Every structure is written in structure tokens, then in C-alpha cells.
Amino acid sequence: MLEILLEEPSAEAALRILIPRLVPGAAEHQDFELRKFNGKADLLRKLDGRLRGYSAWAAAAGVRILLLVDRDDDDCADLKKKIDGLAASSGLPVHRGGALWSGGTFRACIACEEIEAWYLGDPAALRKVYSRLPGNFEQRSGFRDVDAVKGGTWEKLEKLLQDAGYFSGGLRKIELAKKLAPHMDLEANSSASFRHFRGAVLGALAGG
């Protein structure tokens, strides 16, 4: 069983679709649970208590805990160190690297800079859903490294879509997630943070 802690609803909407595609046969509430919070600040504020609760039973029950949080303006290494420190102080064994879980019960994944980088990492899926997008936007200097987009990843994605005639009233993140997730190529995403998360899920649910 895999418990995934998320900071907001659009990530939940995407993962409800993506995880069964990653691990065919995986069913929510049987193989995995999605636990969303009211934003990053809410997640981090409640995390210590939540992890201490897990430490009392998760390892014995064979449950693994995977946390997905946006880096935003934080330093990626510092944020992960802080989160791993909370897990360790709660008594949870922390994953220490590699594709497999290596005996760890808790693992943190940082979406650099935001989960929208995962969508930009699959331009073919974006163009399939939003056909008016330019055919070569991923070659522009600002999009070549989707995990290092300057000026806010979701803002850049919003502008890209608005310039093509979509979301004139503002990016609707949950709608985007639900439309895009069924079409994403799970093997070829250019986002390193997506590939890291994919490996964590496969390691927990598929043993690889």
C-alpha cells in the first residue's frame, strides 16, 4: 500500500489518472491512497504530526509514504533535507536514494519547480489536447529545461496556452490535469522530477 501526500487538488486529479496507467491494476483505496492538503503551507505545517501518526503503524502494515510537494522558491536540497529530517525524527525509516525503496518507509519527491513542469515535459500530449499550440514551443530557450523554467512554471504554461487561444479567464489547473493526464507519455517525459516520481511509484507498487 502506498500513501501519497499532496499539496493541492490538481495534483490529486492528475495522479488519479496517472498512477493506474503507471501500474496497471492499481486501484485507489486498495493499492494507493491520495491525501491532499490545502496548499504547501498547510502540508508543511501539519506534516510533523501526520508523520508521527504514520510511524506508529505504517512499517508494520507494509505501508509506504510518498510526499509530493512543489519546490516553488525554495532550494530543492534544503527543502528535501527539512522534510526528510521531520520523517526521521518521527521514527519513520527514510529512503536514501536509488530506484528501489531499500527498506525505507518514507520518501519525498520535489516537483521542480511546480507540477506543471511535468506537463511541459510532454509537449506532444499538450498539443494533442490543445491543438492550436505551436509545433516547436519546446525548442524555445525558456522551455528547454522544464524543471528550470524562469518566472513560475504554471504562469509560463498559462501564457503559452493563452497565446494559443485557451484559458482566457486564467488557467484552470484541475481541468488541465484531467484532460492532459490520459495522453501523457509516461516513458518519455523530459522532466527529471517526473521521472523521479515515476520511479518512486513503480518501486513501491510494482517492485521496480
Automatic annotation (TrEMBL):
It holds the Pfam family DUF4276. InterPro entries: DUF4276. This is DUF4276 family protein. It comes from Streptomyces johnsoniae.
